[in-house]
Predict the structure.
Amino acid sequence: MLVALIIIVPVFLMVVSLFVRKIRPLGLINAAGYAGACVAGVMLLKVFLAGGCVPISLWGWIYIDSLSVFFLITTIAVTFAASVYSIGYIRLEIENGEISLRKAGSYFQLFNLFSFTMFIVPLLNNVALVWIAIEMTTLVSAFLVGFHNVKESIEAAWKYIIICSVGITFALLGIIFFYYTSSNDANVRSLEWASMLSGSGMFDPKIVRIALIFILVGYGTKAGLAPMHNWLPDAHSQALSPVSGLLSGVLLKISLYAILRFVILANFSVGYAYSARLFIFFGLVSLAVAGAFILVQKDLKRLLAYSSVENMGLISLGFGFGPFGGIAAGLLQVFNHAVTKALIFFCAGNAVQAYRSNNMNMMRGLIKAMPFTGASMFLGLFALVGMPPFSIFISKLCILVSAFQGGYHIIAAVMLILIAFAFAGLVYHISRIVLGSPPQALPCHKESLSAKLAFLFLGVFIVGFGVMIPQGFLDLLLSCQRLILGQ
């Protein structure tokens, strides 16, 4: 019942958006719907933990285990925050003449369709359906990337579609390889996750190694891992800010979920060590690329996009240190980064609307022009770079500890150096935006109540998880780690 409610919410809201024409009531209905999804998600988590994290199969096409619940909860939390933030953001876009009332209605329709595609990915039992759902996220979100219908946004949308479609084609080849060895060696002629898992110990190791590379490159393109990340800075810089928060906070993680599913299948034939080496390689490359580009950015949203590449690299390294606690630490980083990056993208959205530009050279004195947004962005900066007492500090520290426990001392040292580059770049750029005096020509810009509420909602997780991780959430992380390691 709870799962059905969560799936129905975005579908219901999409239908409502076809009939409600006034934007403010539509935004409030949208936020209320996702608030209901949040309540259902928390109840699902409690029921799942009370049942001992035993996998649940529903209706033949739904499969729920610890990994499903974790990614679903993360998706719901960020989507709710984006729906609240959208109320004031879209209203101001209309007032500034950026979009029409009719186009604003289209935004809510696309927002809900995008949310639906992301909600169903962690719930599907069939790996082919997961592939289709992830491709649907690309097609739907492309309209949101190119929403302003100007040259730059259209180019970014097409680049996004082409690169991610090529990537997901590689993922499809990986699925075909997995199916080949599943049917040929394990006599499992099904693409259902549970069926393939039952025969995964008999998969041909040579085929699995090749298939997993295709999966990592394919879904890694959508997850923003370097060097397959080229679409990400353009898409983030052109998308509406609530959508940027969803792209960075949720969409990248949904693709990571798909990778982890196949890693679990591969473990029983090639062992986790093989996956760990691939994760470490892509993690280091992502950190190196992100650190270099963060230092030279001029566009605020592109800067935050490269920060997402850095964090996906850090998460990948955590999975590389998996057997030593790195998986639980990496998953904690997944959640922490999702809520933190959503917050800072929403702050960036307010700044871009106020200064009417993404160019950081034109942004000064945000904390004086928009005190709540400026303070939130400054605190979000320290949270994003991993300063205590914020949540990312805990997950980064856990990843580092797992590296030393696994004996990856040189890799840990390189990781720290690369993180330092990203740290320096982010602090330099964002502190220049927040501090100083605003331009004299900058008009008075009122901060919406909905934006403040979205900031506060995300701030509860950013600060709360830095002080204490709830036991139920920690139990879920450890259950995910055991599942991924095949224990």
DSSP finds 19 helices and two strands in the chain. The chain has a mean pLDDT of 91. The beta strands are 56-58, 62-64.
